[in-house]
Amino acid sequence: MRKLEEQGYDVFLPLLTQWEKTRDGWKQQQQVMFPRYCFLRCGRPGQSIAPIRSTPGISGLVRFGNVPATLDEAVLEALRSLTEQQARAVAGRDCPFRAGDTVDIASGPLKGMSGIVSAVAAERVTVMLSLLGREKPVALPAAHLTLA
Predict the structure, then answer these.
(1) pLDDT, tens only, 15-43
(2) Residue 131: its H or E element
(3) How far apart are CA 11 and CA 140, in angstroms?
(4) Phi-psi region of 6 (alpha: psi -120 to 50; beta: other; left: phi over 0)
(5) Whole-angstrom Cα distance, residue 60 to residue 66?
(6) What is the DSSP string of 54-89?
(7) Candidate CATH numbers 2.30.30.30, 2.60.40.10, 2.20.25.90, 1.10.10.10; the one for domain 102-147
(8) ∠26-29-35 over CA atoms, to 5°?
(9) Tens-digit pLDDT profile for residues 67-98
(10) Count of H-run helices and E-run strands, the chain
(11) Whether pTM exceeds 0.90
């Protein structure tokens, strides 16, 4: 992408911010919305698209016959808006769980049980579990949980 920008093209690579479970717990990671694709347009009138083919990392342009595919500006703006909204929604949270989510316990002494999140704190998540025929709130480390 940087090489295309250096050549004067406007480049847009839509990214999604998602939660990923790692050995150290849950981390926010950015992933490409459309793997192996980006959107670009000429940065100035009359700019040739010929150099794009020889840019490192670029395998080609999406074409219909000999005509490069185009996308309406409104569609690109909608994609930009969607990725920004999604990033803001994820960025405002400390962990991937919210009250009401159904979770599975993936490790620890309660492994294999499922429950519903009732509260979320910085390090722990309170899950309502059915224990001995009654619903009980149990605080668990977020790293022990997965979304069901």
Answers:
(1) 998 888 877 778 888 999 998 889 998 88
(2) strand 124-131
(3) 43
(4) alpha
(5) 12
(6) GSTT-----EETTEEP---HHHHHHHHHHHHHHHHH
(7) 2.30.30.30
(8) 140
(9) 989 999 999 999 999 999 988 887 777 778 88
(10) 2, 11
(11) no
Listed residue (99, 98, 91, 80) closest to 28, CA to CA: 91
Evaluate whether 10 touches 44 at the Cβ level (below 8 Å): no
Residue 76 to residue 34: CA distance in whole angstroms = 13
Average pLDDT of 61-72?
90
Neighbouring-strand partners of residue 128: 116, 137
- Look at residues 78, 29, 65, 69 and name the one whose alpha carbon lies nearest to residue 49: 69
